[in-house]
Amino acid sequence: MKKAITFIFTLMLGTVVLAGGLKVGDKATAFSLKDVEGNMISLSDYEDAKGVILIFTCNACPYAIAYQERIVELDKKFKDQGYPVVAINPNDPEVQAGDSYEAMRIRSHEAGFTFPYLFDEGQEVYPAYGATRTPHVFVLENADDDFVVRYIGAIDDNYSDASAVEESYLDDAVNSLLAGHEVKIETTKAVGCSIKTK
Questions:
Q1: Domain ranges in the chain?
Q2: How confident is the model over 88-124, as pLDDT tens digits?
Q3: Which of 75, 95, 181, 184 satisfies CB 3.0 to 4.6 Å to 196 for a cystine?
Q4: Euclidean distance between the first and final Cα of the chain, in Å?
Q5: pTM greater than the 0.85 cutoff
Q6: How far are the Cα atoms of 70, 121, 136, 181 from residue 100, in angstroms, in the given order?
Q7: What fold, for 2-194?
């Protein structure tokens, strides 16, 4: 009986966390997190950018690994146009050892990450956004000095084969914003591993 009550409480807590997440049109939650070089990176550091492509991702998840090269390419494509990628690892390394800070440093250098890779130590940022998977994307537009959520969800429609992608959700969202248009598909289902927490 005690286990059943604990399970129900856990489900309720999970619902509360998700309910507190951001929706399209919401102001993005500020953060200040350590990157793999030991520097503190804040959302406010990008006040001169047109926006930010915020991606919750990690080292150990097969989905995240499958998207690594595509995330690097997205950063290379959009950074100079005003939409740099910022990646955040939301996983608890005590639950997922492969997602430790040291493992992040190694992965970032080996994979040639061209973007900041931040550690959500204490796991306070991902629930504020409502991220549930790795990878999970939030496209933020800099609108009058506030970052506003314009797209939430998946990078594209085929994690396993980049050459077979038919719908490039993130790419389309950023291109629409750059052209001054509304994002046609504002939300999709993030496909990936569940975020690891105690």
A1: 2-194
A2: 999 999 999 999 999 999 999 999 999 999 999 999 9
A3: 95
A4: 21
A5: yes
A6: 22, 10, 19, 40
A7: Glutaredoxin (3.40.30)
